[in-house]
Amino acid sequence: MSADTRATYARIADELRKAILSGRMAPGDAIPTEHELADRYGTSRVTVRKALNVLKGEQLTVSRQGKGYFVKKPDYSRYVMTFAMFKPEYAIRYASMAVVAAPEDVAKALGLPGGSDVILIGLAVLDGAEAVASADTYLPYVKGFPTIESVTHRADYPKFVDRKLWSILLRCELRIGASRLDSEHARRMACPESEPVIFARRLIRTDEGRAVGYSRYYLREGYGELLAESGYTASKPFGSEA
Predict the structure, then answer these.
(1) Domain-ending residue, one of 74, 97, 115
(2) 156, 175, 202, 240: which is deepest, by most CB within 10 A?
(3) Which of 54, 74, 94 is where one domain is finished?
């Protein structure tokens, strides 16, 4: 069995999250104190506090001055969307992998100076022989992490990135709207230019707010529908299966 490479606070947050989502901890139940959790995991109270703040940010817990943290009642007016770009039944065809100058919107999203080098991974998502989606993902180009040489020799590049970032707790911001295909993505998917599509932008940050990835997705009608749920069942850690 491989060693658990998650950061300690991420592991604490994951285990408490599972207890809440499984019903082992019910709304109103007190979360173990910082001192108890620090003893249980052999870590500092600062690390425990970081984990508790993660759960609070996910709306799973609430803090009460002088009393600690408690499991929060589900908010059924708050919906969480399940968005799995790469479904198991889909195939991926890489269109391009290169170091490029960041477009203005990409540089702004990633917090980089204009024209900074970024790694661009362009791909099409296939359902059988039909292209149902196109995506461009941009990563800050930092020497050695990852190198473009390693990118271009790894067919499982998305998994490679996940392994690299697994010890960092990540948060995603997803914005969805409507758009029409430009010439590049129409060519990539062999479909008419200006075809209406769902346009999604995903920004990935560390829990400290540092942007580590930005993607644009163009979803055709054949991609399928998006799902939004409310309640505890909608809360999943980043990277979990839909």
Answers:
(1) 74
(2) 202
(3) 74
- Burial (CB < 10 A; 0-12, 13-18, 19+), residue 138, is buried
| Per-residue confidence (pLDDT) for residue 192, from 0 to 100 | 93
Q: Report how far residue 184's alpha carbon sits from residue 175's, in angstroms, rounded to the nearest whole number.
A: 21
The answer to whether residue 165 scores a pLDDT higher than 90 is: no
The three-state secondary structure class of 215 is strand
Residues 112, 185, single domain; the answer is: yes
Task: Give the pLDDT confidence of 132-162 residue by residue, as tens digits.
Answer: 999 999 988 876 655 444 544 443 344 444 4
Q: List, in order, residues 6 or more apart from 81 with CB less than 8 Å away.
A: 174, 176, 226, 227, 228
CATH label of the domain that carries residue 156: 3.40.1410.10
Domain count, the chain: 2
The label of the residue with tokens 């991420």 reads 10
Burial 151-181 (b: 16+ CB within 10 A, else e): beeeeebeeebeeebeebbbeeeeeeeebeb
pTM of structure = 0.66
- Tell me: do 63 and 88 sit in the same domain: no
158 strand-pairing partners: none
The β-bridge partners of 172 are 204
Q: Which domain holds residue 90?
A: 84-225
Tens digit of each residue's pLDDT (9 = 90 or more) over 21-54: 888 999 999 999 999 999 999 999 999 999 998 8
Work out the number of other CB atoms within 10 angstroms of the CB of residue 132. 20
Instruction: Tell me the residue type at 226.
Output: L
Euclidean distance between CA atoms 96 and 220, whole angstroms: 20
CA atoms of 216 and 31, how far apart (whole Å): 38
